[in-house]
Amino acid sequence: MERIIVLCLVSNCLSAVHAQTFLFSPKWGPIGYKEREEYDGTAMDEIIKTNEFQASRIIDGTTSLRDGDIAVSSGRRSKVCFARSCLWSKSVDGHVYVAYRLSPEYSEIETKLIKKGMESIEKGTCVRFVPRTHQRDYIDIQPKSGCWSYLGTRGGRQTVSLQSPDCLRVGVISHEFMHALGFVHEQSRSDRDNYVTIMWPNIWRDRLRNFEKFKTDSLDLPYDYGSIMHFGMYAYSQDGQPTIIPKNSHNSKDIKLGQASTLSHIDQMKINKLYKCGAMDEY
Ligand SMILES: [Zn+2]
């Protein structure tokens, strides 16, 4: 009898905790990502999971997130960033050096993961991440709330937030660095409607804006379904139904959207084209 009472108390406690989470979570809402055993999530799925449930959409009084993880300061127009105006400068030796400062709050293992994310960008491209010494422009990698980055270089110090441990996956780290290099999400491309169908009725209503198009320069590269910058098929789903469906009629079921941990070949090509690197095999 005693045991039954204890069990009842525990279950009462659990339901109380649950109710509290429900009542006080400002982010309570539809799932926003698909959690299924056979579904191999994308980097963006991880980011959505972290940012929707833990990070505030408003980072501070003047900065907010758009498209899920791109930091925007009020008064600055981020949409024009894909042009050449926000590129990191190129060294005379042909490399693009991105100086960084890493928060001392990260553990040794976390630091290794962040460096793996950097290596994933460096592989096959002319980008090199270097610890900051004297450089004026640099990224300041910090375990703030959520996974987010500004778009392109802004001049001076700019934060890339990689919350611990949720954002410390190689794919997520690379994804945020791609934003810092100036890339938007692949399905934000201005020509995306030729390649994917956005299933507007399935999208969580508060997040419809995350599916807006940007005026992008596609760099004459094909639409990249497998980009590390592509949303997953169920991104911001309000009812578990797909929000993005590939248009290719023959094998659309075989096309996987997004990428979990590495840059796609086209992602590497994008970097090399935007930054006018040499041939890929040089790196
Ligand atoms: Zn993103």
UniProtKB/TrEMBL annotation:
GO molecular function annotations of the record: metalloendopeptidase activity; zinc ion binding
Major enzyme class: hydrolase
SMART domains xrefs: ZnMc
Keyword field: Disulfide bond, Hydrolase, Metal-binding, Metalloprotease, Protease, Signal, Zinc
InterPro entries: MetalloPept_cat_dom_sf (IPR024079), Peptidase_M12A (IPR001506), Peptidase_Metallo (IPR006026), ZnMP_hatching_enz (IPR034039)
Listed EC numbers: 3.4.24.-
UniProt signal peptide: 1-19
Co-factor(s): Zn(2+)
Cofactor, free-text remark: Binds 1 zinc ion per subunit.
GO biological processes: proteolysis
Catalytic residue positions: E176
Binding sites annotated in the UniProt record for Zn(2+): H175, H179, H185
Matches recorded under SUPFAM superfamilies: Metalloproteases ('zincins'), catalytic domain
Peptidase M12A domain ranges (all copies): 74-278
Name used for this protein in its record: Metalloendopeptidase
